[in-house]
Amino acid sequence: MDAEAAEVRGPDDFVTAVVGQLQGRCLRLVNAGHPDPLLVRGGRARPLEMALRLPPLGLLSAEDNTTEVTLRAADRLLLYTDGITEARDPATGQFLPLVPAVEAAFAGADLDEAVDGLVERVRAWTHAAQRDDAALLAMELPAAECFAAGRPAE
After folding, report:
1. If 0-12 CB within 10 Å is exposed, 13-18 middle and 19+ buried, where does residue 79 land?
2. Closest CA to 107 of 40, 18, 21
3. How many other β-carbons are positioned within 10 Å of the β-carbon of residue 80?
4. How many CA atoms lie within 13 A of 101 on its CB side?
5. 13-59 pLDDT, tens digit each
6. Are strands 76-80 and 67-70 parallel, antiparallel or unpaired?
7. How far, in Å, are 3, 10, 19 from residue 7 at the CA level?
8. Angstrom distance (rounded) from CA 16 to CA 31
9. 61: helix, strand or coil
10. DSSP letter for each residue of 137-153
11. Whole-angstrom distance, CA of residue 19 vs CA of residue 29
């Protein structure tokens, strides 16, 4: 991906990305200049900090920054763009307090409701005046009874 981005990018272009692979309960992540994903476990959210943060794609970094996380049943993972982290209250200029917003939105909600709740919190925080693009991707590991021998049930 890095070489491909380098081939097509212009002198002022860059692309950030988080790439993940889930195998059983093992999540492998590589981060190229993107905001760290949030792990929501037991109602608490925390960033999954990378061992090494690579520069954005297209700058041809040769380093490996794979981070591995063992997930538990009912863990949730949230990936998001900087349009979420840079959401500001127009009256105060303060950035959205992301971790508390995620914890409030995800508390007791199914995954669709949680994402909708977070979108509503961003809109309320920015007074619907957000100018940056924003994207969210959330996943939830199935409950423990859905796993047999470390593999998701069919």
Report:
1. buried
2. 40
3. 23
4. 20
5. 677 778 889 988 999 988 887 888 999 999 999 998 777 666 556 55
6. unpaired
7. 6, 9, 19
8. 8
9. coil
10. EEEEPPPGGGEETTEE-
11. 6
